[in-house]
Amino acid sequence: MNMAITMNGLKGLAGRMTDKVTGKKGGEHTTLIMQTVRKLADTEPGKAPLIGHLPVEKQYLYAGGMLIVSLLLAAGFTIYSLVQLDNRTSYETKSGDLKVLSQRLPLTAQQSVLGNAVAFKKLAEGKATFEKTLTGLIEGDGEVPASGGAARDTLGKISEHWKKFNPQVNQILSQQKNLVALNNSVKNINSLSIDLQEVAEQLASQLADAGASVREVSRANHLVMLSQRLPKNANLLLSSDLIDPAVVLQLEKDTTSFRDTVQALFEGAASRQEESMLTLEDLGTNMGDMVEAVGAVLANTQPLLQSKMAANNLFAGSDGLLEDTAKLSQDYRSSGGMGLLFTAVFAVLALGSLVMLGIVNINETKSRARKSEEENSRNQEAILRLMDELGELAEGNLTINASVTEDITGAVADSINYTVEELRSLV
């Protein structure tokens, strides 16, 4: 009876296991997960470019490492590019300042030569700014590092220009006191000439009305002419690009002639008439101031000549300096592109590494799915084989031994074999 129960139990076990394997009790459908696994298993795993021949662990290591390195380098070059962009903006601003100063300095120098005190201040400030800016671009300062590349070569040319410019500017600045005094003297001459002309015309009219000789009246009219020519030559001396020696000589002659003519009138008939005598005395007083002012102009002729030559030299060299400062700005505008290029390159590498990492992951998933499917097939075959063996046992064939393998049925088969051995001993 016990044997019958055991055999019936084996039949029932075999029937239940067969139902589970063949799917009779669970239906004919499979789960979505199993379908997905089978689809992946049916797809042949590919190989990642360049590293597909390596073990999966190394593929992950290389692809992940390349991704991290590329991201770090892309971030580094991005920061570098931003810094370079900020520096380039400062470089362009400073080079623009040099360009403006290259044209402003000669103009300011011309105004300084005319004795303009404000222009002297601007000239000194412009000189200091140019030197500071140029040194900062060459050696670096608190705002920007030292320039490199093509800009550095251009800065060398600008430095050569400045070596010629700087002495000319210093020459003009060194004569500030004399040139300002000369300008004031010319202004004084212009002011005195108005009074001199008026008094000389008054004297000529008085002498003519008093019946003075033609010679006396002619002398008075000569003073009128000199009172007009003195300021004209003084202004011409100051404003002309170069000093004409003839103008200097004429200014000296006119001053002497004015003094001698007034002296002759004092010694002539004009001094014997009360009205004309008072006018003549007034003329003599103004003449003294005029002679003093003209003397101050003539005394500063040499400093004026040197300063005018320096200003002309500045103008002559300003075109070359302008050209090089303009080129410097262009050099800075065209620099700094390599950082952005490297950023783009490493960003593409990072993207490629990410794609490769995805390919490695997909291939690994496919490989695992294929292995899982193969293992499931082996397990199913082992179960079916065990079912066949159980079927024979259920029919009473105790000579059958269940196959003991490494598959999932191995432990079950071993237990069944133990049971069969016990049954054999009972029989």
What does this protein look like?
- This protein is mainly α and 427 residues long.
- The protein has a domain at 179-316: Four Helix Bundle (Hemerythrin (Met), subunit A).
- It is built from twelve helices and no strands.
- It has helices at residues 2-22, 32-42, 56-113, 117-139, 149-174, 176-209, 214-239, 245-267, 274-299, 301-333, 337-394, 410-426.
- The chain is rod-shaped and about 185 Å long.
- It starts with a helix and ends with a helix.
- The model is unreliable at 1-7 and 20-30 (pLDDT under 50).
> Regions with pLDDT < 50 over 5+ consecutive residues?
1-7, 20-30
CATH level 1 name of the domain at 179-316:
Mainly Alpha
CATH topology of the domain at 179-316: Four Helix Bundle (Hemerythrin (Met), subunit A)
Q: Could you tell me the strand content as a percent range?
A: under 5%
How would you concisely characterize the structure shown here?
By secondary structure, the chain is mainly alpha-helical. Helix content is 83%, strand content 0%. The model is unreliable at 1-7 and 20-30 (pLDDT under 50).
Features:
Four Helix Bundle (Hemerythrin (Met), subunit A), 83% helix, disordered N terminus, 427 residues, mainly alpha, 0% strand, single chain, 12 helices
